């Protein structure tokens, strides 16, 4: 995986083979960040990266100037890798080792962008729980976005707060907004 833009543009990051992850492809990540770039100033954003895995999305935020990034994953080795990489590049990434659902139930952190990349084999009920917890616990700032990455075989368009989706190969990003019910 590589960092697409910003301070660390073109830097390759090689994750250990034993991490239980499926990193967002470079093409899909570039397209996603082009969308975000048109909506926000990265320097002003509070970003929450759920199911952070390798930290791929967090690194991209940091490279583009985001100073407040929280990465949440339940796997100790993923958190360890994110911490090591963030330290090596001096990136402002805070990690939290936690089950994402438990984290969302207890969190009071408000974010501008919440990105969730859960396992593609989640059930619809598991996918539904993410926006339910985010919006139910008021975890987004006004004009904030929840973005859930999922496979093209999953349809989240009937969920509350759904706004739109963008597809890139087998990856889909579904966008959820406070103003959509």
From TrEMBL:
Keywords: Methyltransferase, Transferase. GO terms for molecular function: methyltransferase activity; nucleic acid binding. It comes from the Bacteria. Gene3D superfamilies: Vaccinia Virus protein VP39 (3.40.50.150). The keyword Transport does not apply. Pfam families: Cons_hypoth95. SUPFAM superfamilies: S-adenosyl-L-methionine-dependent methyltransferases. One of its GO terms (biological process) is rRNA methylation. PANTHER family: METHYLTRANSFERASE. This is 16S rRNA (Guanine(966)-N(2))-methyltransferase RsmD. It comes from Seonamhaeicola aphaedonensis. The lineage of its organism: Bacteria, Pseudomonadati, Bacteroidota, Flavobacteriia, Flavobacteriales.
